[in-house]
Each structure stands twice: as C-alpha cells, then as structure tokens.
C-alpha cells in the first residue's frame, strides 16, 4: 500500500539535518545558497569565510554543475565569489 506524502505541511517532511546527511554535495550547496541569498537572489562571500563551511574546490565544482544546469550564474575572483540564483518562471 502506498502512503501519500503531503509536502505542503512542513511537519510531515523529514528533518532538515537528516536531509543534509543524505543529499549529495551539489544539492547541499544549492540549499545553502538558497538559505543565504539576499532579496535580489544573490549570495556573496569571501573564500576565507566559505572555507569555514566548505572545501573550496568542492564548492567550485558544485557551482559549475549548478551553472551547467542553469540554476545559478556566478563570478569568482581571488578574494571570493558572487552567486546569483536564477529566477523560476
């Protein structure tokens, strides 16, 4: 018997910490960007601040994969990175 999952109610969804454990790196980075974006759907940080949470190369690889799928656009330099999440229409 199949049980319908009602994803409109956040109480029935798995806990966020559990989801972070089972998500792959690309999904985890996308959720991190989504949670920390500003009102213009942008995220800016320095590599030093980002390295407290992520490995720089792993984060850059995830950004490239998200960019290839059209989910983000980004610009990086020696000091940090600027990421813009693509709007859903």
Q: What order do the helices and strands come in, and which of them pair?
A:
Elements: H1 16-22, H2 25-36, E1 42-46, H3 47-50, H4 56-68, E2 72-76, E3 80-85
Antiparallel strand pairs: 1-3, 2-3
Offer a quick outline of the entry:
This protein is an alpha+beta fold.
Structural class: alpha+beta
Shape: globular
Tally of extended strands?
3
SSE order, as H and E? HHEHHEE
Distance between the termini: 36 Å
Quaternary state of the chains: single chain
Which value, in Å, is the CA radius of gyration?
A: 15 Å
> What is the residue-mean pLDDT, rounded to a whole number?
84
Main sheet specs: 3 strands, antiparallel
Strand order of the largest sheet: 1-3-2
What does the model show?
- It is a single chain.
- The protein is α+β, with helices and mostly antiparallel strands.
- Helices cover 40% and strands 18% of the residues.
- A hairpin with a 3-residue loop joins strand 2 and strand 3.
């Amino acid at each position: 018997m199949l049980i319908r999952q009602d994803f409109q109610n956040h109480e029935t969804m798995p806990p966020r910490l559990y989801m972070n454990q089972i998500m792959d790196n690309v999904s985890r980075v996308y959720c991190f960007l989504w949670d920390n974006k500003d009102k213009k759907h942008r995220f800016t940080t320095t590599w030093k601040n980002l390295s407290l949470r992520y490995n720089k190369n792993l984060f850059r690889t995830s950004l490239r994969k998200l960019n290839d799928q059209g989910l983000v656009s980004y610009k990086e330099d020696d000091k940090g990175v600027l990421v813009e999440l693509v709007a859903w229409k």
